[in-house]
């Protein structure tokens, strides 16, 4: 594999171009500004989302003349095993910290469709606070619109990136409810609280057919030290070991694409 040198953190312009509650673009120049807003903005209101698992809250934030919605998650559940869909998951851990870990790892890989997310305490309760994607519907809702081609046909590159990312973080709970598409036909990946498992192999490798060459090169260039610097605020050593093992499995599978790129 090529030995690519990566900066500690790839700062994308994901924060730029996001839409606020009024339908206008939020004035963030990039992720750094969006993250600062999430950490420091005043909490104006909170509303529990009862139709969602684990009862997250939709929060209205205000700061510096800017208003934006965010999603506040506080879930942190551990079980010896749990049934998820048709699968029994051992060492089950559903936690808000993995939401932030997924976002930070997506930045490291240059993946631009995981919304900015930070750890933050609200009223003494710690959780993940992630920018809300306005003017968006779930993949399930989009599928009901028969007047347009299916999402996977319209956005094949985004789905390929999703398959690779989910294999890397072992996201066993990806479904149509946590894939969003906004009014500009941009795909967004949310709800990664059931990821970063221990002792697991990369799954779904057969779906990764034509990954983004740039993302694949960054994955090949990742070393354990860079990953540890990125993820150590959120996960432990064994989580990083498992992720690096899945990385190796993905790269072995995708060696022909990597050489061609």
Polypeptide structure, described:
The structure is a single chain. The chain is α+β, with helices and mostly antiparallel strands and 261 residues long. The protein has a single domain (31-260), classed as Orthogonal Bundle (Transferase(Phosphotransferase), domain 1). Helix content is 33%, strand content 24%. The protein contains 9 helices and 10 strands. It has a 5-stranded antiparallel sheet with strand order 1-2-3-7-6, with helices on both faces. Strands 8-9-10 form a 3-stranded antiparallel sheet. Strand 1 (42-48) and strand 2 form a beta hairpin. Helix 5 packs across helix 8 and helix 7 crosses helix 8. The longest helix is centred in the last third of the chain and has 17 residues, at 237-253. It is globular.
Outline the secondary-structure elements:
Layout: H1 31-40, E1 42-48, E2 57-63, E3 66-73, E4 76-84, E5 87-95, H2 97-109, E6 117-122, E7 125-131, E8 136-138, H3 139-143, H4 151-154, H5 156-169, E9 179-182, E10 187-189, H6 213-221, H7 224-231, H8 237-253, H9 255-260
Antiparallel strand pairs: 1-2, 2-3, 3-7, 4-5, 6-7, 8-9, 9-10
Helix pairs in contact: 5-8, 7-8
């Amino acid at each position: 594999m090529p030995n690519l040198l990566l900066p500690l953190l790839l700062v994308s312009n994901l924060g730029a171009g996001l839409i606020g509650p009024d339908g206008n673009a939020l004035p963030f120049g990039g992720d750094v500004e969006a993250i600062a807003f999430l950490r420091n903005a005043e909490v104006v209101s909170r509303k529990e989302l009862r139709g969602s698992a684990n009862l997250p809250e939709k929060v209205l934030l205000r700061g510096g003349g800017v208003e934006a919605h965010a999603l506040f998650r506080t879930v942190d559940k551990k079980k010896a095993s749990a049934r998820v869909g048709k699968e029994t998951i051992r060492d089950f851990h559903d936690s808000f910290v993995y939401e932030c870990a997924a976002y930070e790892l997506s930045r490291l890989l240059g993946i631009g469709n995981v919304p900015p997310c930070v750890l933050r305490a609200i009223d003494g309760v710690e959780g993940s606070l992630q920018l809300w994607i306005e003017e968006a519907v779930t993949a399930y809702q989009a599928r009901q619109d028969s007047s347009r081609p299916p999402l996977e046909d319209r956005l094949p590159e985004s789905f390929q990136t999703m398959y690779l990312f989910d294999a890397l973080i072992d996201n066993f709970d990806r479904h149509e409810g946590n894939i969003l598409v906004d009014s500009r036909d941009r795909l967004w990946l949310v709800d990664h609280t059931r990821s970063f498992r221990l002792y697991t192999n990369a799954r779904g490798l057969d779906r990764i057919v034509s990954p983004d060459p740039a993302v694949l090169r960054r994955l090949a260039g990742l070393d354990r030290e860079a990953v540890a610097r990125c993820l150590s605020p959120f996960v432990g050593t064994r989580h990083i070991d498992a992720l690096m093992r899945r990385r190796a499995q993905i790269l072995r599978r995708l060696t022909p694409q990597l050489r061609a790129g």
